[in-house]
């Protein structure tokens, strides 16, 4: 039996995942960050949902030529790594992490950037799976299948770079939304990365990703709408989500998707890039 859904939501709950694990063209991807800024809610990353395949966006699915963390690899490199995992373009994928909902949205966004059609995030992540009384297994490579012929199709509409933001500053057509905490956004707390200035992109709004997450679950749509409405952004504006290194910005992107907002992109370099470039303006 093959998997197919018509829902526009990118979220799956535990019941939905249990139903889908029985199907043929469905794979579960596990991801995590080795040194996240926020260490709360971490579950033992050596235990995973049975059948999980590791999607490593820090060491494998990353541009190794860049000095910046977590940058998207090229389309060809992405295709090569997906093929090595035995994933096909027709597979439906669900991504989860060991913090409930933290780094999984980053992988969801990466897959959407590379044109994957059916990709979802497990709401609540590994924590929800374990709390529901389900079994786990040791993370190994034994779940990898025969090498496939994956072909990525890069969607540049979901990615923004610093030149686009800089060009827009005098025109204010973009709504830059920063997922970092208020202290880092306002420059009253130093950045965790050496050589990165404190502050934010001029004109940016601050929306701490933690406001969108409740105990490892994405907030319900009514709450998300209230939060986004509170920013008082004009409806026709194009959203650009940013953060420290392009990870929690994707939580904002996932929330926007759940609200039916289609005009958005993630600034992949985020503050790691902008704050490191002394030629770029900042506000405090």
Topology:
Layout: E1 11-12, H1 14-20, E2 26-31, E3 47-48, E4 53-54, H2 75-84, E5 92-97, H3 104-113, E6 119-122, H4 125-131, E7 137-138, E8 159-160, H5 162-168, E9 174-178, H6 182-185, E10 205-206, E11 213-214, E12 217-218, H7 221-229, E13 238-242, H8 249-258, E14 264-267, H9 270-274
Parallel strand pairs: 1-6, 2-4, 2-5, 5-6, 8-14, 9-10, 9-13, 13-14
Antiparallel strand pairs: 3-7, 11-12
Helix pairs in contact: 3-8
Overview of the structural elements:
With 284 residues, the protein is α/β, with parallel strands linked by helices. The chain has two domains: 11-154, Rhodanese-like domain (Oxidized Rhodanese, domain 1), CATH 3.40.250; 157-274, Rhodanese-like domain (Oxidized Rhodanese, domain 1, 3-Layer(aba) Sandwich). It contains nine helices and 14 strands. The strands form four sheets. It has a five-stranded parallel sheet with strand order 1-6-5-2-4. A five-stranded parallel sheet has the order 8-14-13-9-10. A two-stranded antiparallel sheet has the order 3-7. A hairpin with a 2-residue loop joins β11 and β12. It is globular. Mean pLDDT is 91; it is low at 1-6.
Order of helices and strands: EHEEEHEHEHEEHEHEEEHEHEH
Distance between the termini: 55 Å
Largest sheet, order of strands side by side? Answer: 1-6-5-2-4
CATH fold field value of the largest domain: Oxidized Rhodanese, domain 1
Amount of helix: 10-25%
Q: What is the CATH top level name of the largest domain?
A: Alpha Beta
CATH superfamily of the largest domain: Rhodanese-like domain
Number of strands: 14
From the helix content, strand content and strand pairing, which structural class follows? alpha/beta
* Proportion of residues in extended strands: 15-25%
Please give the largest β-sheet.
5 strands, parallel
Low-pLDDT residue spans? 1-6
* Gross geometry: globular
With helices defined by DSSP (H or I, 4 residues minimum), what is the helix count?
9
Mean pLDDT: 91
CATH architecture of the largest domain: 3-Layer(aba) Sandwich
Instruction: From the alpha carbons, calculate the radius of gyration and give it in angstroms.
Output: 18 Å
Number of domains: 2
């Amino acid at each position: 039996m093959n998997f197919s859904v018509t829902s526009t939501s990118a979220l799956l709950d535990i019941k939905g995942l249990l139903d889908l694990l029985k199907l043929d063209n469905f794979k579960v991807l596990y991801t995590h960050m080795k040194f996240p800024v926020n260490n709360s809610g971490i579950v033992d990353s050596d235990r995973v949902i049975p059948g999980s395949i590791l999607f490593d966006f820090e060491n494998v699915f990353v541009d190794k030529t860049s000095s910046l963390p977590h940058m998207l690899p090229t389309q060809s490199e992405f295709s090569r790594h997906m093929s090595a995992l035995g994933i096909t373009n027709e597979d439906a994928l669900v991504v989860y992490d060991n913090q409930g909902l933290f780094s999984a949205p980053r992988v969801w966004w990466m897959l959407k950037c590379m044109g994957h059609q059916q990709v979802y995030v497990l709401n609540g992540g590994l924590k929800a799976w374990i709390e529901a009384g389900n079994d786990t297994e040791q993370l190994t490579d034994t779940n990898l299948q025969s090498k496939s012929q994956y072909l990525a199709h890069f969607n540049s509409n979901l990615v923004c770079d610093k030149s686009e933001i800089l060009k827009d500053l005098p025109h204010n057509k973009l709504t830059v939304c920063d997922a970092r905490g208020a202290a880092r956004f306002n420059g009253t707390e130093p950045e965790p990365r050496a050589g990165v200035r404190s502050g934010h992109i001029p004109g940016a709004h601050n929306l701490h990703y933690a406001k969108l997450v409740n105990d490892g679950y994405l907030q319900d749509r009514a709450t998300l709408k209230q939060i986004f409405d509170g920013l008082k952004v004009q409806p026709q504006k194009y959203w650009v989500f940013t953060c420290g290194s392009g990870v929690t910005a994707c939580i904002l992107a996932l929330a926007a998707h759940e609200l039916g907002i289609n005009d958005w992109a993630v600034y992949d370099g985020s503050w790691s890039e902008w704050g490191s470039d002394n030629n770029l303006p900042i506000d405090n």
